[in-house]
Write a structure and sequence with these properties.
This protein has 292 residues and is an alpha+beta fold. It contains seven helices and 14 strands. Strands 1, 2, 3, 4, 5, 13 and 14 form a seven-stranded antiparallel beta sheet that branches. A five-stranded antiparallel beta sheet has the order 11-10-9-8-12.
Amino acid sequence: MKYLLSHRTTYSYTSSVDSAHHIAHLRARAFPGQTVESIGIATNPMPAMAVQHVDHFGNNVDIYRIDKPHTRFDIEVRAAVDVRFPEPPPFESTPPWEAIRTALDGKGFPAPIEAAEFVHDSPLVPEVEALRAYGAQSFTPGRPILAAARELTSRIKADFEYHPGATDISTPLAEVFDGKAGVCQDFAHVQIAALRAHGLAAGYVSGYIRTIRSKDETALRGADASHAWVAVWCGEQAGWVHLDPTNDLMVSEDHVAVAWGRDFSDVSPLRGVILGGESHSYGVAVTLVPAD
């Protein structure tokens, strides 16, 4: 499925900003299953410096410095992306989750290294004992890893209320779990914590989910904004499989991935430091529609 993407973010300040530095994870990455055919980012004001680099996780990062005074900052991404996620293997054909845990531990020599680093706690996904117990309901002895992970995805969708405003990025994960409410980043963090509690590798994926264009289409939570989901490592043969707990979906043709890391803090779409500005307001507008 080929998509046309538009993502516009606007910051309005109550007083002049004299200078600003912004870091953006907005440039969709290419990988097996996704081809970025074209992409461009425009800012207003124009930056005095614009630098691109690739971070530790292979994500595309843009860095901007704006030196002129301004009371508004706009950044817009436009892209054409072709998405063809591979079909996941049959659930029952994947290895028992304990075998994956053993491979990731490796008695100090884990295989593969690039997956093993996603087993450990991260800034926004600390160890939460209640989430270990929650995940254990799906990760019963000897169960194939993808069957267990897929059931966990469904349980999170059923047990948690999608409620914008119930949390923010500073809400502790234990509090999110107690309240059983939040948005896509919370749903993803909950699933990641439950997976890591069982010694499994789980990453946070930022991106988008398709925009609904008619009343006949099924509404998707997280559309018209940045979205987030989970990637779980299912062994050397199956590799990384993407799961969307907010919508109870296997990620396939409805999603476009931008970046991935240990949690939201690694892939925040836009963050930075400004001098001046006092208070501010911001708005985000996203559309992801088929190119045809």
